[in-house]
Amino acid sequence: MACLEYKIKRKQKNKKNKKKSILKEKKNKIFQNNENNTKEIKKVKDEKMKIFEIKKNKNNLNKVKKEIKKKKLKKKKEKKINIELENTNNTNSEKCSNIIENSLNDLKGKSNDTKKDSKINSLNELKNDSETSIEKFENEKKIEVKSHEENTQETFYSEVKFEDLDICDALKKGLKDLNFVKLTEIQAKCIPHFLNGKDILGAAKTGSGKTLAFLIPSIHILYNIKFLPKNGTGVLIISPTRELCLQIYQVCKDLCKYIPQTNGIIIGGMSRNEEKKKFVHGINILIATPGRLLDHMQNTKEFVYKNLICLIIDEADRLLQIGFEEEINLIIKRLPKKRQTALFSATQTTKVESLIRLSLQKPIFIEVTTKIATVERLQQGYALVEEDKRFLLLFTFLKRNLSKKIMVFFNNCMSVQFYNDLLNYIDIPTYCIHGKKKQNKRLKSFHDFSSAQSGILLCTNVAARGLDIPNVNYIIQYDPPDDSKEYIHRVGRTCRGNNSNGSAIIFLMEHELKFLNYLKFYNIPINQFAYDTNKIINIQSHIQSIVTKNFHLHKMAREAFKAYLNSYITYALKDVFDVNNLNLLLASKNFGLEVPPKVDLNLKLNIKKKKFK
């Protein structure tokens, strides 16, 4: 029995062992199969990746070939269309280097003292750097709007008279009352195309008569079709600042003296309720700033713009520069697509190009330029000033020219307000305009200075473009502009018209003299303004005692000094305007401060965009 039991147990163990061995074999086979499968899958994936890479490389090669073909075609077209432009562009680099050399030689020759000679000679070491930096900067920045028309005339006025235009007699009568006889070049080129219903992209130097170029044809179109107030708004003019809108509105009002069509203005700072009442009666020709216009389009039911015929965008580059891009895009999307549009821009940036594509349809490009970027009658000079003598030179100049009409430009609102309060305190009456001033006070200062035969206006760049102030004798740039384009717009406030003359002076410190090279790049003729340093009225101790004793002036001086440094940090031309080159103790003397306040110069500011004052 024991033997049988042993045999049975042994058989059972053998069976179990066989089963285990069979299971092991099966598992091994499955594992081997899985390994083989994964290897095959990897091989397939690798093959697919290779095929994909080959196809990708082929596509890239095809794209590169297509791009090369496109570039070749573009080059051929450009050569066929603009042979003359290519010749001028080929000589630009040679001219630039010659201009820079001449400017450096001028700087050397114009200085009288040996100390100044040694200082200016130090610029020669930076000559090569300035050449390359200027070319890079100007190529990267805004490109001038180019015209397909050749500018054969160099005179400000054309030979065409307003009497010869195909416009209504009522409009001709209004022009006669305003003593307008001959058309300017921009008017002679724009008006016929506008009357023929074409979209226009225009560029002209400041003071060229651009306002009449779009007002005359748009008013005539409404008069010709008998556009009534009940039809709503037929002409919409968008401008960047309140002052520009008011100026356009005044000209429009004078032109429409014998015309039944209504006109109006809506700008920030005015009562919305009063503007709504105007819409009830109907505004045929509407001048507006973008923010207030969009507000009424969204919230005022009485505002009828579905019958719009003409849209005019004035100073488009400046509109986008001061942050109205979103508002402009929303406004254009709300307007009827079947309309005539005119867009005027001094420069063509990428943002302006996108606005052109959005608003214009097959526009006619019109440009009125001369070889010199500024008016030939304008006398331009720079004054080399010591860092702590800037205000003393300004005071001396203003004191000796109180019978003249003078505009003084600053780079921030606080400086304008401080120097306005200080100069009025020491019996030199001044007006002031800046972005932080209330609208009614800004308007009063603007109108008072415009109507005055003599006076001093302190302002920021809010007055640098478009404002037509008559008979300005001197433009003083106490703080330098951000770039050459801004310089051109500032000095454009004088010599407006054919028979007017004027002068422009820019204050530059020794380390800022490289800015002259940027002006030479634009063929701006500028010479050194010679003055006797011994004749400067030294009231430094008097100013310091006034600022120290007067709580209001002392507080304003500290704030203005900080604002001056912050605005200096935001200059785009870092090779010229470097805040580290300033002597803070000497700079504070111009604000009547004995000791400069603490200012953190390592502020993390957004230098990409400088807000327009």
TrEMBL record:
Free-text domain note: The Q motif is unique to and characteristic of the DEAD box family of RNA helicases and controls ATP binding and hydrolysis.
Lineage here is: Eukaryota, Sar, Alveolata, Apicomplexa, Aconoidasida
Pfam families documented for this protein: CTE_SPB4, DEAD, Helicase_C
Q: Where is the Helicase ATP-binding domain?
A: 191-366
Q: Which family does it belong to?
A: Belongs to the DEAD box helicase family. DDX18/HAS1 subfamily.
Q: Where is the Helicase C-terminal domain?
A: 377-537
Organism field: Plasmodium gallinaceum
| Designated name of the protein | ATP-dependent RNA helicase
Catalytic reaction(s) noted? ATP + H2O = ADP + phosphate + H(+)
- Which EC class, in a word? hydrolase
Q: Which gene encodes it?
A: HAS1
The protein's Enzyme Commission number: 3.6.4.13
